[in-house]
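Reviewers of the previous submission asked for a worked example of the structure-prediction workflow described in the proposal, so we include one complete record here. The input consisted solely of the amino acid sequence. No template or homolog information was supplied to the procedure at any stage.
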Amino acid sequence: MLNALVVTISGMNLDFTKLVPLYGSSAATKLASAWHQQFVGWGKSQTAMRFRDFTRFLKWIAARAEVAPHSVEAAFFLGVQRCQSTSLTQSVVHAAGEAWATRLRDRDCFEIVSTTNLLSRRALLESVSVCLQRLARSGLWANPGRLRPVISGKIVGGNLPSLGELNKVSREKLRGWVKPQHGNLDWQEVIRLNETRLARLRSICARDLAVGVAKWERGQALIADPAIPVAGNPEVLISTEK
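From that input alone, the workflow returned the following structure tokens.
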């Protein structure tokens, strides 16, 4: 049973046993199996983030089902717990996801997260939305479609601009590269600049990597060359000189 509840992806173990007290072993095993089917091959950090966010969503659903037994969250919870995929229709799954999303879109609601950072809220909403859609492919429930993202309000946080958003400043007092206001950006030009600048950055990295590899291969060849004398042990050489 333990092996059926622990999924290994990219060398990382994802433990679904934490869901057993809430959903039961049968449902947790189905979730683990579906997760392996849909996320095998994903990167380690991305898989860890998706797993953390989705188990958080499932725990929130279970808590909501307890305090609001007639809610759509309760309907979703019971459908998953009883492994009744037929009851988990598109409308039920989408409504349960939207109940979660609505709270994340409301910056005055701290039921799910304590931060008002829209970037964090948007990432959490999008992560759960992706999981609901992907796991639907394994037949756990109907595909709910994409949840409405966090888009209202001003985006805040330490987000870094893309290469295409950076403009060269010619004025003497503002040297280097700056990010202009979003309202002044031509996004088609941003996309074009991103492609051009990323291609250039990649060529620079590839060139430097090739130089490094060539130096390493030259060093390996010198080490393997029997015609080149091998340096003696430094301690032996020093004692001999004395």
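DSSP finds nine helices and four strands in the chain. We consider this example representative of the routine output the project will generate in years two and three.
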